[in-house]
Design brief:
There is one protein chain. A hairpin with a 2-residue loop joins strand 1 and strand 2. The chain has a two-stranded antiparallel sheet with strand order 1-2. It has a domain of about 180 residues: Lysozyme (Orthogonal Bundle). About 55% of the residues lie in helices and about 0% in strands. The protein is globular.
């Protein structure tokens, strides 16, 4: 199991000490209290509230919702009650009602994940119910978008010799819609743009995405429409936008480089690849690293110390007027207080989310103050710090464990691929049982396992799939079948493992000759499946490196191959007779169970 799974209930949080400066005239209680020595403490919560909040969040993570509610009632400072309610409403084991979601939006729609609650509320809304309140972050995002667009246009103008060219070069990245467009209209445009793109109507998706100011879909659509200059500009803007997480920025960097090459500007590609390669544990970061010919940043020793953020960034001193500015921000802005409170509890991912929401709607000195607050709290400004999204902290090799797995009959697939799938599916928990009904290390559905084993008894006795040896053997055989179904393409097989082969096959048929492996994955419906592919394949390449193996499939991705064949890495699978496998399984487990 991962070390990250053993979360401490309460972690010691940093306290930023600033030199004396002008304090705000009026500050809210416990927001940024001045100590007896004249320094500012970034601990908005009292010790008792911090303890009760920490226990309540821990209870929600365990699914003990009544206990969490009881603990929350005893908290004096309501600062984090919105996030606590969010954690409950979005928990996999809690079935939220429309009324609960709508009530949450009425009270807490200023919070970073309000868009997720809004999306879920819309899905659950009864026909006669009033619409849920809209999240409040859209207006700030629009302001930030225009600020970034203007800065990028200025950089383009400075580099282009033709006086008429800057406007033409900058125009493609400018949102067409008026920034006063109602947010409900923007939300509808975003949804329609994504639906159109993933249904294959690229021209419609492009128009809608541009109107909504959605750079990722607009960039992909522009690329497929062969508007490579525009695709390059859109992806380049995303790659340097710190309000996006590292996985998104590395992907944007890769696609900006690819668009630059397609536009006949290969000399521009390395700068974008360098952005992607800064995170060598992301999918596109690994591809960019190989494309640039860099030594792997991740190995059995973890991340190269030279690549660790602590070695690259010197934390500036925050004192004097700057310190007073940070204290004033915490005293006056609820998001800043929540960021400080989450840092006090050791919840760095949540603290970072609040910081990023503040950064999105700020510019100039205000933006610098938010950045100083992030440094003072030692919280991630650019991405969540949890494992699933990629961390800004030093790479921990414990995130990629290599336990002694022993499939029945041994490994018939590359060990690294098995590790990567198990890591993503079950976190190496052999007893894992999902809400969807999947079992064991490789999260096999009983019907799928029965089909692979050739024995329907696995449907009536799915607990057999909790046996590691059986689960790994059937899982490997299933992957082998999927590889055959998708012509041996590694990425497509992993997508099929998550969503079934029909989804990727339909996408390939829809795209026709333009469907290279990477573009097909990015054009496949199902955000969860696209994320699954990136996480598993990145883990696979990292595991091969940890195990001392090269990855020809990674080289194929870096070289722009249309297909990324698993056969380049994997040994020839050992054929297994279905009947023999079924007999082995049943004789080993069913007979003893009957005694």
């Amino acid at each position: 199991m991962f070390a990250a799974a053993a979360l401490a209930v309460v972690m010691a949080a940093p306290t930023a000490t600033f030199a004396k400066g002008k304090a705000p005239a009026k500050s809210r209680p416990a927001a940024a209290a001045r100590s007896a020595t004249g320094s500012f403490s970034l601990k908005p919560l009292s010790p008792r509230d911090a303890r009760d909040y920490a226990a309540a969040f821990a209870a929600v993570r365990r699914g003990e919702f009544e206990l969490a509610d009881t603990l929350a009632k005893g908290v004096a400072n309501p600062l984090l009650k919105g996030r606590l309610a969010y954690a409950k409403l979005m928990h996999a084991d809690y079935v939220s009602s429309y009324d609960e979601l709508a009530d949450w939006l009425d009270k807490y729609r200023d919070q970073p994940d309000a868009d997720r609650v809004y999306t879920l509320a819309r899905k659950k809304k009864p026909g006669s119910a009033p619409p849920p309140a809209l999240p409040e972050l859209a207006a700030g995002a629009d302001a930030a978008t225009w600020s970034r667009v203007e800065a990028l246009a200025e950089r383009i103008e400075a580099k282009l010799p033709d006086a008429a060219a800057p406007a033409a070069a900058a125009a493609p990245i400018l949102p067409v819609r008026d920034i006063s467009l109602p947010t409900v209209k923007v939300d509808k445009l975003l949804q329609e743009a994504r639906e159109a793109y993933y249904k294959g109507d690229v021209s419609k998706a492009y128009k809608l995405a541009v109107q909504a100011g959605e750079p990722w879909i607009a960039g992909l659509a522009a690329y497929r429409l062969k508007r490579f200059d525009e695709a390059q500009a859109r992806f380049a803007a995303m790659a340097t936008d710190e309000t996006h997480d590292e996985w998104m920025r590395s992907g944007a960097g890769y696609w900006a480089s690819r668009a630059a090459i397609a536009a006949g500007q290969p000399e521009a590609a390395p700068q974008y690849l360098t952005i992607a390669a800064r995170t060598p544990y992301t999918f596109y970061g690994l591809i960019a690293e190989r494309q640039l010919g860099l030594d792997p940043g991740v190995s059995a020793d973890g991340l190269d110390p030279a690549l660790a953020p602590a070695a690259r960034v010197r934390t500036p001193s925050v004192s004097g007027a700057a310190g007073a500015g940070v204290a004033k921000l915490v005293a006056s802005d609820t998001r800043a207080r929540r960021a400080a409170a989450f840092a006090q509890l050791g919840m760095k991912a949540e603290s970072g989310a609040e910081l990023r929401s503040g950064l999105m709607g700020s510019a100039g000195e205000a933006r610098q103050t938010w950045q100083r607050l992030g440094l003072a709290l030692n919280a991630p400004l650019t991405s969540p710090s949890d494992l699933s999204r990629g961390s800004r902290v030093r790479f921990d090799i414990a995130q990629y464990p290599t336990p002694d797995l022993q499939p029945q009959g041994g490994f018939t697939l590359d060990r690294a691929l098995v590790y990567a799938l198990v890591r993503q599916e079950s976190r190496f928990d052999a007893s894992a049982h999902s809400k969807s009904g999947a079992y064991g290390l490789m999260q096999l559905m009983p019907a799928t396992a029965a089909r692979v084993a050739g024995d329907d008894k696995l449907k009536s006795n799915p607990s057999l799939l909790k046996d590691p040896g059986i689960n790994l053997r059937l899982g490997q055989d299933y992957v082998t079948r999927l590889l055959s179904a998708v012509n041996g393409d590694l990425l497509h097989a992993v997508a099929a493992y998550n969503a079934g082969p029909g989804v990727i096959q339909k996408t390939l048929a829809q795209m026709g000759k333009e469907a290279d492996s990477l573009l097909a994955i990015e054009s496949m419906p199902g955000g969860q499946t696209r994320e699954f592919v990136e996480k598993v394949v990145a883990g696979y390449w990292i595991y091969r490196n940890i195990l001392g193996q090269d990855s020809p499939s990674l080289s194929a991705a870096a070289s722009g191959s249309r297909a990324i064949k698993a056969a380049a890495d994997l040994p020839t699978p050992t054929p297994v007779a279905t009947a023999a496998l079924s007999t082995e399984i049943m004789s080993a487990l069913l007979a003893p169970a009957a005694n």
